[in-house]
Amino acid sequence: MPHTEPDHLVISAATLDAGVAWVEEQLGVSLSPRRGGQHDRQGTHNALLSLGPDFYLEVIAINPDAPVPSHPRWFGMDTVGPEPRLHHWVCRTSNLAEALEKSTIKPGEIEQMSRGTLRWLITIAPDGQLKADGTMPSLIEWQSQPHPAAGLEDKGYRLQKLEVHHPQALEIKASLFDAGMSDKQIEFVTGSPRLAATIQTPSGPRILG
Predict the structure, then answer these.
(1) 104: left (phi over 0), alpha (psi -120 to 50) or beta
(2) pLDDT < 50 stretches in the chain
(3) Domain residues of the chain, as ranges?
(4) Nearest to 42 by CA among 23, 18, 60
(5) Phi and psi dihedrals of 112, rounded to 5?
(6) Are strands 109-115 and 36-39 parallel, antiparallel or unpaired?
(7) Global pTM?
(8) Predicted pLDDT of residue 116
(9) Are 200 and 158 in contact (CB under 8 A)?
(10) What is the 3-state secondary structure (H, E, C) of the chain?
(11) Which of 65, 69, 154, 199 has the fewest Cβ atoms within 10 angstroms?
(12) Handedness of CA 193, 175, 54, 58 (dihedral sign)
């Protein structure tokens, strides 16, 4: 059985500057100096915030300076709305092929990715869209060390709770547990599709949604 657990939160925005400004306002944090980079194959770029030694928040947007890819961009970025929001989440697993085989809800096909010294496998749907309105996480297997969060400045922010709301929330939970996940920080709630993350900050809890 693979070991599967939450890896990072994904904030989407029309521009990276807008997404960073939104996170800074919502959490009362500065993302300066920015840490992140470009995903040349996907035509996107990101900025990261540490949420602990092995968990982080990613702000992602289409990179206007990158060539338009010949395939749909990952994370449904081709159809992302104009307002920044908690768009998606990603779970890491010790064996992506096995976790995907055991999942009853398939988040995509396995693709090899790299940037600098980072190497990883990740599930991406052929049409680039996310399963269950983004509430079913993508699965990732890091093939390089250390974890990306280890290189980020720890500013004392932590995930306290992630609520996964969807009409098929229990099916999503069952699929993830079949893939080896068991995490008490994640609450699955039957209802309209949305994600809500409670982040513990130095000034108290804040909610991203």
Answers:
(1) alpha
(2) none
(3) 4-208
(4) 60
(5) -85, 135
(6) unpaired
(7) 0.96
(8) 87
(9) yes
(10) CCCEEEEEEEEECCCHHHHHHHHHHHHCCCCCCCCEEEECCCCEEEEEEECCCCCEEEEEEECCCCCCCCCCCHHHHHHCCCCCEEEEEEEEECCHHHHHHHCCCCCCEEEEEEECCEEEEEEECCCCCCHHHHCCCEEEEECCCCCHHHHCCCCCCEEEEEEEEECCHHHHHHHHHHCCECCCCEEEEECCCEEEEEEEECCEEEEEC
(11) 65
(12) negative
Q: In whole angstroms, how far apart are CA 124 and each of 14, 15, 97, 139, 166?
A: 20, 22, 13, 9, 20
What pLDDT score does 61 carry? 98
Q: What is the pLDDT of residue 182?
A: 84
In Å, the largest CA–CA distance within the chain is 44
135: its two tokens: 């509430």
